[in-house]
Amino acid sequence: MKQFNHAADTIKLDAGIRKILSATNSEISVHFPVKMDDGTIEVFNGYRVQHNNALGPYKGGLRFHPAVDIDTARALAIWMTWKSALAGLPYGGGKGGVSIDPQAYSKSELERITRRFTYALGENIGPDVDIPAPDVNTNPQIMAWIADTFASTKSPSTRMLNLHVVTGKPIGSGGLKGRDRATGFGVVASIKSWAKLKGVDLLNKTFIVQGFGNVGYWASHFMTELGAKLIAVQDASGTIYNESGIDSEQLHDYVSINNGDVYGYEGAKQLENNSFFKVECDIVIPAALSNQITSENADEIKASLIAEGANGPIDTEGEKILLAKGVDIIPDILCNAGGVTGSYYEWLQNKRSENYNIDTVLEMIEEKLSVAFSKTVESARKYKTDWRTGAYCVALERIQQTYQERGVFP
């Protein structure tokens, strides 16, 4: 909300529209029973927050995590509104999930939890109302269960018209080729736009990645394809470093058999965790948790670019230090928007009964993000501000225009 208010002040956002966007449209809390494998009954808490739908249906992920609550969902839903608006998508912002540790349940229990949660949400979601997607601890299988459950509550004649109630589905269930790599690809597409703007050749540029999950791996994969060199990776298990370069594909193979951890990888040496941001490199890609770069370590960063693959990896004070040093920051609502952009094309192919090939998908994502990057830079120049504020200004101006044209009912 601090970011929102700063951008709203910058563009002199209409006072009435500011009030609308400062509140959420709907906040749904459901409590639903599920029978466990041993026959006992447990009651689970689920949430869905719908922030704003001026531009189109609500859009945003569902996460299964013990920390899921209404406040978390509210913050992330608001973020999704700005992200969709900036990317030029016909969506509003939504977010939600179930407060559970999915590791504590069997696959059959997770299926029943997912299906019962979907049923509890009822008509609050739908392909033209609110379209969830995968998020923390959710995956294509869970999306397939949601789609099947939701469609099964409809009449047989309309069942197939409701399967795109979610995106991020398996390919065989209407999913999009390339959706798995869309967010990481979008990070690199944004970096390419930055390089073009700055006249920088990415060949042999060094980069480090925090987090080697889906986003971190695919960002590394596509950066390496451009000739850049991965030299350090950090995740919850530790920090690894190799000045000569780390093979992202070999590391990915290692992580897949090592419980998702980079620690112990033989192609690099171990570093102390507090040394990660001290590594000399050209580009930093934080793709893990929020608030990782703060006033305590921002001054240690020697890179010329930070591309935010994660949501909110830099706190306010850390960002001030980086901007004062002249470090460029591609903000999260732009840099990691490849995921929601990929979701848009999955939703579109389902609505049109089409089937896009992967090369077309990646081209369309890159085109969308290239336009969003240009608008962000142009907005930052216009208002003489940083790129993050510029990105928010683009999003707010688009939503403001919609309200001004349509008016407010009644």
TrEMBL record:
SMART domains to which the protein is assigned, alphabetical: ELFV_dehydrog (SM00839)
Q: Where is the active site?
A: K95 (proton donor)
Task: Note the InterPro entries from the entry.
Answer: Aminoacid_DH-like_N_sf (IPR046346), Glu/Leu/Phe/Val/Trp_DH (IPR006095), Glu/Leu/Phe/Val/Trp_DH_C (IPR006096), Glu/Leu/Phe/Val/Trp_DH_dimer (IPR006097), Glu/Leu/Phe/Val_DH_AS (IPR033524), Glu_DH (IPR014362), NAD(P)-bd_dom_sf (IPR036291), NAD_bind_Glu_DH (IPR033922)
The entry's substrate-binding residues are: K59, K83, S343
One of the GO biological process terms: L-glutamate catabolic process
Please list the residues that bind NAD(+). T183, N214
Recorded GO molecular functions are: glutamate dehydrogenase (NAD+) activity; nucleotide binding
Q: Where is this site: Important for catalysis?
A: D135
Q: Which organism is it from?
A: Brumimicrobium salinarum
Similarity-based family: Belongs to the Glu/Leu/Phe/Val dehydrogenases family.
Limits of the Glutamate/phenylalanine/leucine/valine/L-tryptophan dehydrogenase C-terminal domain: 176-407
Protein name as annotated? Glutamate dehydrogenase
